[in-house]
Amino acid sequence: MYNTLREMPEYYKAGIYIRLSEADEGKSYESESESVLNQRNILKNFVKEKGFIFVDEYVDDGYSGTTFDRPGFQRLIEDIKAKKINLVIVKDLSRLGRDHILTGYYVETFFPENGIRFISMLEGYDNAINQASNDSATWLFACNDYYSKQNSIKIRNVLNDKRRNGKFIGSAPSFGYLRDPDDKGHLIPDPEYAWVVKKIFDMAYNGVGLTDITTYLNDNNIKTPSSLKRKNPNSKAKYNPIWTISSVKKILKNQMYVGDMVQSVQTKVSYKSKKKKALPKSNWDIVKNTHEPLVDRFIFESVQNNVKRTIKSNITNRDKRLFENLLYCKECGNTLTVSYRKNHDYWTINCNRYSRDPRRRMCEPHFSPYDKLEESLLEVIKNTCKKYLKNLDISEISKKVNKIDNKDNVNNQINDLRKQEKDFISKLDMLYQDKFNGIISEEMYLRISRETENSLARTREKIESLQNVKENKKVNKSDLKEYENKIRELIDIDDPSRELLQALIDKIIIDKDRNVEIVYKFSILNN
């Protein structure tokens, strides 16, 4: 392997990189050269004219240039490291990327350090030739980034106008709908799956429970919404071939099915980020009667009331049982749900996964009375823990708790700063690894690490200052007795609180035959 491009190879093994963004799809091109097909033709002709050896093409169709987490580009990087190619050619610099920092890093650092000749045809950029046109590259990186940001703003404004006018601008319509081939912003019923939506609402309206609806859909092998999205091989949506109560509930709560266009339920954090955040309902764009309804509005509202009652009955303001959230299924690892049987006035447990769809038997039933289980567990835990808890020095603990309580606010601030400190240290570690592995240059490492170290130093100064404040606080001795009493109540193993059990127990595993294993958080108790 050669370290600099001055050590010219005898022949070049070329890889051509092609990218078409999501924003480019479906637009009327001023020049067809932006399409994948035409980028391919232009680049292959160039390789042939120059006498380079064509090795492979790397294509990212429908990926933004603001991120480099693209499958085609990542495969290109792997082939560079494997020395399969020593020449990369793109139609123009914006095809490589629009993030000026990372694009500049790959062009000016990564490619040269890995002995890669890089050519961008439109700008006449060639890092193997010392020419004036290369000097404009840094400026072009920034321009492409700026263009991407401005383009994002323009596109967002256009899409906002379409949303307000009731035009659908999402990537895929709700299950049961298709885009109108004559007007992509208009939805029409899907002749293959609209009946499924109608059936779900009909069953719910007539009192069929969510579990039975889910079972019906699975028993009849009806495709799930996520499985239909997999028609696009590039789709990154999570794939679930099985209907669940939550997927049925999602359909029952979707206002789109009464003919209303509901959009802007979430938004991207930044034009460079894929991360999205949910928006409050007050920010949603809702335009009524924009497309053919699949469900009568009266039926929809009636079903909403039923769903709300179901949710309300499941989420009561009751106190949690002592061992709730500590019980786990041995067979599938899911939590065991603790439920109250109002008609019979007693508590039960069951496997969460099994109870979602009992007829399909996704796990084993663990149905059993809760109260007897609690009584048995308490007896075992008391015998195990008593000899350790009674030896605790309560007065010493009360002093420590008193100090902690008096300084709660200061501690919260220190904890937040500790997290910042940890983040800065992790960033420095990653930067060093990136420099060591040749991912970033020495110059970039020094610049970023210097800024990070300054931030770290300021954070540590704040921590030290707050710790001095904390140490200067005096313990109020008159409160010690009260704290001591509270601690005695907390660790009273004869009448244990949930807090004590949560502190002592990691989890309780129960199998289908009701065999129980208690896993304590402290190894001394597991002996």
3D structure, described in words:
The chain is an alpha/beta fold and 527 residues long. It is built from 18 helices and 17 strands. Strand 16 and strand 17 form a beta hairpin. The longest helix has 31 residues. The N terminus is likely disordered.
Mean pLDDT: 75
Q: Please count the helical segments.
A: 18
- Going across the biggest sheet, name each strand in turn: 2-1-3-4-5
State which percent range the strand residues make up: 5-15%
Secondary structure class reads alpha/beta
The residue fraction in helices comes out at 40-55%
Approximate shape: extended
Number of strands: 17
Our measurement of the CA-to-CA distance between the termini, rounded to an integer number of angstroms, reads 58 Å
Structural Rg? 31 Å
Low-confidence stretches: 1-6, 25-33, 312-316
What summary fits the major beta sheet? 5 strands, mixed
Q: Which short descriptors sum up this protein?
A:
527 residues; alpha/beta; five-stranded mixed beta sheet; extended
List the helices and strands and how they pair.
Elements: E1 13-20, H1 36-50, E2 53-61, H2 71-81, E3 87-90, H3 93-96, H4 100-113, E4 117-120, E5 125-126, H5 137-164, E6 177-180, E7 183-189, H6 194-205, H7 210-219, H8 225-229, H9 245-252, E8 261-263, E9 266-268, E10 276-278, E11 285-287, H10 297-314, E12 327-329, E13 336-341, E14 346-351, H11 352-356, E15 368-369, H12 370-389, H13 394-406, H14 408-436, H15 442-472, H16 480-490, H17 498-504, E16 505-510, E17 516-520, H18 523-526
Parallel strand pairs: 1-2, 1-3, 3-4, 12-16
Antiparallel strand pairs: 4-5, 6-7, 8-11, 9-10, 13-14, 14-15, 16-17
Helix pairs in contact: 4-5, 6-10, 13-16, 14-15
